[in-house]
Amino acid sequence: MGTAKIPALLWFLLAGLVLALAVNPAHGAKTRHYDFFITGTNYTRLCHEKSILTVNGQFPGPTIYARKGDLIIVNVHNNGNKNITIHWHGVDQPRNPWSDGPEFITQCPIRPGGNFTYQVILFEEEGTLWWHAHSDFDRATVHGAIVIHPKRGTTFPFRKLDKEIPVILGEWWNDDVEHVLDKAKRIGGDVELSDANTINGQPGDMFPLCSRDDTFKVAVQQGNTYLLRVINAGLTNDMFFAIAGHRFTVVGIDARYTKPITVDYIMIAPGQTTDVLLKANRTLGSNSPYYMAARTFITLPVDTIRFNNSTATAIVEYTDSAAARPVGPPEFPFLLPAIKDEDAAMAFVKQLRSLGNQDHPVHVPMQVDEHMLIDININFLPCDANNATNKLCEGPQGNRFAASLNNVSFQNPAIDVLDAYYYGSGRGVYEENFPNKLTVFVNPTGNINGGGPLLMKRGTKVKVLEYGTVVEVVFQDLSIENHPMHLHGFTFYVVGRGSGTFDERRDLATYNLIDPPFQNTVSVPKSGWAAIRFRADNPGVWFMHCHFDRHVVWGMDTVFIVKDGKTPQAQMLPRPPNMPEC
Predict the structure, then answer these.
(1) Cβ distance 105 to 543 under 8 Å?
(2) Which intervals hold domain Plastocyanin-like (predicted)?
(3) 543-553 pLDDT, tens per residue?
(4) 348 and 380 fall within a common domain
(5) Contacts of 4 (CB under 8 A, 6+ apart)
(6) Are residues 415 and 547 in the same domain?
(7) What is the distance between the alpha carbons of residues 249 and 275, in angstroms, rounded to a whole number?
(8) pLDDT band at residue 452, thresholds of 50, 70 and 90?
(9) CATH code for position 185
């Protein structure tokens, strides 16, 4: 786009005015301040102590509390030993890609000893989101919840609550996750499996004795209603989640309200959030505690590919009377689906619908300007004994793992895409030719894992959109597992999904254009498809990627660049003067 640099004082004055207008203080919005100190902190799990990166020494990290429309200022001080960035997952950040966070996409990382102040602009979000590191595998331990309450004078569109409880599902590696990533990059093989799934940082009492005393516990009282804000912060696993002896009601996903559905379990992919109401209505006369359980959901062939098959547990205890004190071991949720129950996963996601009432209307774009069919695949790169960075190959058939969208395997540039675009110096940093459909390249660097004839190319290819363009993306999975696809800068309508190959003549008739779920991360089913729609009315540079972190490293990502519109309110905010340098 190209622009002149703005003096720091003028930038602060302009930014302060624009942000004040954005949060609209006339409607009771506030500016909230947080300090995040990145530090190495010793933690013990599974009888194994190690130093992990944390925010303010906490694992999981601190919860951010705000109201719809607030401005959140977070000053991140990197007191750790490596570069880092922070992303505010699901926050659309209107006109403000500068604070979105993915390294080498919208910023250079914060170096050890440095700091950067993020301006997190809440707009339409209401419910549960989360923040996490967006550099290497740091988000394994650097993550936390964002709780966004309704504006003052308004309320939740469901029954009165007695308590809200963040429930963060994650993973634990006994090894240092930086070593895990470095090894995978070095040998070209798959990422070492995590050693346990976790609930709020704890694996639970189905693991060795030293883990049992620290099992996360939830105290409830008969007749009360609890809002569980469930977040999948894991790097590699979809999860099934359930509570023994209780059903719950889904009321929100990705900080957007849904029509209430009562279920025995949920399936939640990495990056997603789900708000569920738990009614404490234990069976009279039953004094047993109840397990809250999170189990891996996997679509890979379990007989040939290793995976983490552990179940994390927490305990729900009734504390309202002496008679309710726990007696005996906790009950296990026998309706928690099995590890490979694809039917159970699809049955859950197909029930999701936007609330669609007067206060939370649905606005599905009906006229599509740009159609994209994006094929998702796992690929490989040939081993090259003459290349120092590509000569160790422990991937399939002696090659190195890679991944692609439309046969393009994304490579991070040396400087961030946003700066290159803003200063009009994109040439040599990225190419504006990401394809709208699967492409066979003349000079390939790898071919599809599984023997297909299609060929892959590595590069930094981006898709440029005019402001206001209505985009429909159909993700088509060509691999052997689900993929949670996340788009920064936008919330989109999931208008359709299905199994097999997408057929426009057949599948358009199955679209839900009335009340589709409104999400920022969609789980694309194994060997199936999912269709999303959004209006490109947020100018800036926005990352789109699989939320399995190893797939991001392998190249399953791309970038949308949305041009400025004609009015000042449709144009990107100026570049902050204190952006980290590469």
Answers:
(1) yes
(2) 40-152, 164-319, 447-565
(3) 999 999 999 99
(4) no
(5) none
(6) yes
(7) 8
(8) very low
(9) 2.60.40.420
